[in-house]
Design goal:
- The complex is a heterodimer of chains A (314) and B (231).
- Chain A is built from 13 helices and no strands.
- Chain A is mainly α.
- Chain A has one domain: ABC transporter involved in vitamin B12 uptake, BtuC (Orthogonal Bundle), CATH 1.10.3470.10.
- Chain B has 231 residues and is an alpha/beta fold.
- Chain B has one domain: P-loop containing nucleotide triphosphate hydrolases (Rossmann fold, 3-Layer(aba) Sandwich), CATH 3.40.50.300.
- Chain B has a six-stranded mixed beta sheet, sandwiched between helices. Chain B has a three-stranded antiparallel beta sheet with strand order 2-1-4, with no helix packed on it.
- The longest helix of chain B is centred in the middle third of the chain and has 15 residues.
- Classes of the chains: A mainly alpha (314), B alpha/beta (231).
């Protein structure tokens, strides 16, 4: 019952999100295409809310899938270096002067990292999942070092642009950018639901999945590939928004007390709701401009996450 | 028919044997390679057609084609997720049997555990759960790795009776250190030492006084038709 009420309130939150912001708009004007409210509502607020919802949903679901495949509660596309890859390539684009192509570079950076991880994981036994996590962490440090070099050689303007990208941003105008994100979100949701039985078996052990007739390697590669493409698309548009992939699956597991295969839809939905909520806070608290979204997700998420872990251990 | 044709690795040496629609017991000291052999038979190790079950290589076969042929029950339950419960676990194992999960839970007297997360079970309870899963999976050949290791005497007797019951499992391959169980089941014996097969013959010949002396020196005795460890 409480779950239903929370789901209903969350839905209302998403519907109301476009109405709130630094510029007040009146609800009567949103269908009057001559008013400026109409433009703010339909060209800025609605696309932004949709973007926030689908990016949050993709990041949360990607965390759930990575944690299942790597059998490690800390693995997300971010802890494995995917986001650092995107950031590094964006920095390269900014410094080389290809500012119009930063999204493309970010996407390439994410995909290069994934391909690297695939090559490495085929060399080591994929069952040794902690080694892959360590490799991801090493890769992140390597990327950070490269990024330091780029900071060192860049001018002030370029450095600022790079820093701003790493904070994440949901600033978009119009619907052009978000069709791809919505498509990516719905695709990985469909894939995750299609592979529900396989995911359930992977949640026990690779050995059991194999004995129940699952081609474990192939299943893992399919899931990882599509999730990574979706994350690559998100990062290319919004920059790295960390932490959601880590905390949302954990929070829902603690609250629902159900196995991960039954949490696919809740994780997707509440991942989206969480980012919409963070975005509302970021837009409405700002004194002069929006607080970077990455800051809000961590400010809000970290204390709640720590509280949950402590209360669970008791 | 299950056939192994000269398999070699750094653990197992020159392994060749056949089982034609029969049961088998695999014995051997700790670290002899019994579990590795079980992994080989159940397709968990990759190989080039050295193991064929009814002409099918279990390691590159997926879906029903594989699950109908062979199943392996490990000595310990390995589960990553914190919340998968006993009933859910049995549901995903319910493949080729016409029995109901509820009936199997009752049969093994673990129906009180139905909604308990698998991760919270004791080692004995998880072993019973694994046996229940084997009944529901119902493969042609089921390999049990140390099936009684964590069970109390009452449960060992219960499992023994299940193994004797022809309506519960098809063919069984049992890895065990419980020599009395091996003796009473009367299946043929395969004895492994340092990765090699050193005995592959009938139960009667293995449990003769002479061969017991060869394999176990003075540590095993036959007393009143029971095999005991002499301490």
């Amino acid at each position: 019952m409480i779950k239903k009420i929370v789901a209903f309130l969350s839905f209302i939150l998403i519907l109301l999100a476009p109405f709130y912001g630094q510029i007040e708009i009146s609800s009567q004007n949103i269908f009057n295409n001559l008013s400026s409210d109409y433009q703010i509502f339909w060209d800025i607020r609605v696309p932004r809310t949709l973007l926030a919802f689908f990016v949050g949903a993709i990041l949360a679901l990607s965390g759930l899938v990575f944690q299942t495949i790597f059998r490690n509660p800390m693995s997300t596309p971010f802890t494995l270096g995917v986001a650092s890859g995107a950031t590094l390539f964006t920095a390269i684009a900014i410094i080389l002067g290809f500012t119009a192509f930063t999204s493309l570079f970010a996407f390439i950076g994410a995909m290069v990292t994934i391909i690297l991880l695939f090559i490495i994981s085929s060399r080591i036994n994929i069952k040794e999942t902690s080694s892959l996590l360590l490799i991801g962490i090493a890769l992140s440090f390597f990327y950070s070092a490269c990024l330091m070099v780029l900071f060192f050689v860049s001018n002030l303007q370029e450095s600022y642009e790079i820093v701003r990208f790493t904070m994440g941003s949901l600033d978009i105008v119009g619907f052009n950018d978000i069709y791809l994100v919505i498509l990516a979100g719905l695709s990985i949701l469909t894939i995750a639901l299609r592979y529900k039985y396989e995911i359930q078996l992977l949640l026990t052990s690779y050995q059991l999945a194999n004995l129940k007739g699952i081609d474990v390697k192939k299943t893992n590669y399919i899931l990882l590939f599509w999730v990574s493409v979706a994350v690559g698309i998100c990062v290319s548009i919004t920059g790295p928004i960390g932490f959601i992939g880590l905390i949302i699956p954990h929070i829902l597991k603690t609250i629902y007390k159900k196995s991960a295969d039954k949490l696919i839809i809740p994780v997707f939905f509440y991942g989206g709701v969480f980012l919409v909520l963070c975005d509302m806070i970021s837009r409405n608290l700002g004194v002069t401009s929006d607080i970077p979204i990455g800051v809000v997700t961590s400010f809000l998420g970290a204390p709640f996450f720590i509280y949950l872990i402590i209360s669970k251990k008791r | 028919m299950l056939k192994v044709d000269n398999y070699n690795s750094n653990i197992l040496k020159n392994i060749s044997f056949e089982i034609d629609n029969k049961n088998l017991i695999i014995l051997g000291s700790n670290g002899a390679g019994k579990t590795t052999l079980a992994h080989l038979l159940s397709g968990l190790l990759e190989h080039n057609n050295t193991v064929l079950i009814d002409g099918i290589n279990p390691s590159f076969t997926y879906g029903d084609k594989k699950t109908k042929l062979i199943n392996y029950i490990p000595p310990k339950l390995d589960i990553f997720d914190d919340y998968i419960d006993v009933k859910e676990f049995l549901d995903i194992n319910n493949l080729h049997s016409n029995k109901l999960v509820e009936d199997i839970l009752k049969l093994l007297e673990i129906n009180y555990l139905a909604n308990k997360p698998c991760k919270q079970l004791s080692s004995g309870e998880s072993q019973l759960l694994l046996i229940a899963s084997a009944i529901l999976h119902n493969a042609k050949y089921t390999i049990f790795d140390e099936i009684t290791a964590n069970l109390d005497p009452l449960k060992i007797k219960k499992v023994f009776n299940l193994l004797k019951d022809k309506n519960i499992f098809n063919h069984k391959i049992i890895i065990t250190h419980n020599l009395d169980l091996a003796y009473k089941l009367k299946y043929d014996i395969l004895f492994i030492k340092d990765g090699k097969i050193v005995f592959n013959d009938t139960n009667e010949n293995f449990f003769s006084d002479e061969s017991l002396k060869v394999f176990f020196k003075d540590s095993v005795k036959k007393v009143d038709n029971n095999i005991l460890v002499a301490l």
